[in-house]
Predict the structure.
Amino acid sequence: MMAEFPAMMLVALAIDRLIGWPEWLYARIGHPVTWGGRLVAILEARLNRAGFPLRLMGALTLALCLIAVLLLSVAVQLLLPDSALGIVAGGCLAWPLVAVRSMRDHVAAIEKPLIAGDLPKARGAVSMIVGRNPDVLDEAGVARAALESLAENTSDGIIAPVFWGAVAGLPGIAAYKMINTLDSMIGHQNPRYLQFGWPSARLDDWVNLIPARATGLIFALVSGRPLRAGRIMLRDARRHRSPNAGWPEAAMAGALGVRLSGPRVYDGAVMPEPWLNPAAPDPRPEALTRGLGLYRRAIMLLMAALVIFALLPVALEAF
């Protein structure tokens, strides 16, 4: 099935781009990521306790979660027929694990009120996708937060799961999403999770190394200014507090000609983060429209790449 994995991811992207994860379906069965989140929450409640060796318990939580998803996904993968039907079925199963439409919809929900001058509504919309306090954000702060989330989540929510799915099929995309869920739930730098979440946070860093850089490259390529965007990405990405998020964010900053990141407020404290593309101006509301355009072109390039990789074995056989 390895030659068919890119085709499966193409099917998953096409379905999600068309319909997303419908509200009626979520109301009835939830979502696979929330199912995995319940397992993480159960294990965390039992193993993240005073007196336990917390890093070891965190590693055990990580291992148990990965074993669970790998056993299930490998079994399903082996049951898929080695045919076009298997590709479509695998793509349907991978569909919930990419987030093309939801990412677009979340940013569009910020774009429209911000352009209309409705800052309170834009703040409410941006609070759905970022952790910082929206009440202290001005117009530029809301735009920056939305663009940063769009850049980072293009990597974490789309490019990375598709990459691992194209490499290893359903086990690849399922394992990645579990690692990413663990990191989002317990990979925080606070007293409760600093030790317990350390193994999950470090593994999340590793599995995102290639996808984050690939996302930045894709943004640069579709920007219309690839040399400038690429130069700013290479210069500024390592300034970011994250070893991975800086790559797509810096590429987006260069592509749109705006500055991103910078100081922000978390839990009442100012975090002195450095700027990405510091000489550029703050993004205006219309930068979100251009950012969504960049995002759409990036997804199109990703899908084109999957088509090429899906057809490559056929082309090689013809020779």
Remarks:
- The longest helix spans residues 139-186.
